[in-house]
Design goal:
By secondary structure, the chain is an alpha/beta fold. The protein has 13 helices and eight strands. The chain is elongated and about 170 Å long. The termini are far apart. The relative contact order is 0.13.
């Protein structure tokens, strides 16, 4: 009996404990938050009056028109003057120096770097005895000046004969003798005029070729100045589309003298730009179209193939009047190699020698003329805008031998 009572007591205790656990766990659970109270709704502000700030209008005192004081006209009403807009000045067009006698004016600059040749020859020819060693020194002086082997031999043979006949030699006689022989080499009977005379149906068309670094684009811009100084109207074609900023450079040159520049996208088709330039020149009635071409390409197409294409496309309008090859006078024999390559593709009609003021190798004039059979028509004598001059043989030789 005692065992039964004990079992009942244990069962009651166990049930009580379990019930406490269940109630405690329910109390630990959080009740869900109460639903939010309904927000206070504020009435929207009234519409603002015209010209007022966007805020609730205030009660204002109303006045009739009779109560408003109107001006009687006795006091002046200040009228605000409209602001004065300053007009920008038009782009100033430069007036280039006239080309007549330009090389003579630049003779001093040329002679500073070229008289080494002339003075060296005069010093050697003034020796009392002209033996074989002296004549070899004369040959070396001429070769060092890039005159070339064949022209050097011709000059030395001519000098030998003239000195032998002359006998006694005064400085004046030697200078005159050397001047005559140099003029024979340079050539005084070659046509050195840049052909830009327009015909009735077309402008004169000039294509400028040469490798980059020779001053090709700058020469094209300077040539535009030469033509403008002679009273010609010029259109520039920026067909060097593969050199960064070449078109910008050419356009700047053109704007200085009022020449219009036709250009295309960077890396575009040079032949297309050249075609458009000639077309524009025709429509504008311009006298001359100058086309600046690429000196190198960044494509698989060869430079010479591209130049040939430009020439063919331009000649769909009209034949070219001039193809000018720009050479750096400081490159010497390398310049002759360049000249040969260009002459094989386009018919070179004239040569422009740049940087002639920075070298004592004035004999390149003779060598390149002999190599190509075409005359030097223009020479560059500095960095100035008007330092491009028509080549004049007499002035050039006089600068070589000095006064």
């Amino acid at each position: 009996m005692d065992i039964v009572i004990l079992a009942v007591v244990i069962a009651v205790v166990v049930l009580g404990a379990l019930g406490g656990l269940i109630v405690g766990s329910r109390r630990k659970k959080q009740l869900p938050p109460p639903p939010p109270a309904a927000p206070d709704i504020t009435a929207p502000p009234a519409e603002p009056h015209v010209g007022d700030e966007a805020e609730t209008p205030r009660d204002e005192e109303r006045r009739t028109i009779e109560e408003v004081d109107l001006p009687d006209g006795s006091t002046g009403v200040a009228v605000e003057e409209p602001p004065v807009v300053e007009e920008l000045p038009p782009t100033e067009i430069e007036v280039p120096e006239p080309t007549a006698g330009r090389l003579i004016r630049l003779r001093a600059r040329l002679s500073r770097s070229q008289t080494a040749l002339g003075k060296g020859l005069l010093t050697l020819l003034s020796r009392e005895h002209l033996d074989e060693d002296t004549w070899e020194e004369i040959e070396d002086t001429l070769l060092t000046a890039d005159v070339g082997v064949a022209p050097t031999q011709e000059l030395v043979d001519g000098l030998r004969e003239r000195v032998k006949v002359l006998g006694t030699r005064t400085p004046e006689e030697l200078r005159g003798l050397l001047r005559e022989e140099l003029l024979k080499l340079v050539g005084t009977d070659m046509d050195r005029v840049v052909k830009t005379e327009p015909e009735a149906s077309k402008p004169g068309i000039v294509m400028v070729v040469g490798v980059n670094g020779t001053g090709k684009t700058t020469t094209t811009g300077k040539l535009a100045r030469v033509l403008v100084a002679d009273g010609r109207s010029v259109v520039l074609g920026a067909a060097d589309t593969f050199r960064a900023a070449a078109a910008d450079q050419l356009q700047t040159w053109g704007e200085r003298v009022g020449a219009y520049t036709v250009r295309g996208p960077e890396g575009g088709d040079p032949a297309s730009v050249a075609f458009d330039a000639v077309k524009e020149g025709k429509e504008m009635g311009s006298d001359v179209v100058l086309i600046d071409t690429a000196g190198r390409l960044h494509t698989k197409t060869g430079l010479m193939d591209e130049l040939g294409k430009v020439k063919r496309v331009v000649e769909k309008h009209a034949p070219l009047d001039e193809v000018l090859l720009v050479l750096d006078a400081t490159t010497g024999q390398n310049g002759l190699v360049q000249a040969r390559v260009f002459a094989e593709v386009v018919d070179i009609t004239g040569i422009v020698l740049t940087k002639l003021d920075g070298t004592a190798k004035g004999g390149i004039v003779v060598a390149v003329q002999r190599e190509l059979g075409v005359p030097v028509k223009l020479i560059g004598l500095g960095e100035g805008a008007d330092d491009l001059a028509p080549f004049e043989p007499e002035a050039f030789v006089d600068a070589l031998i000095g006064e």
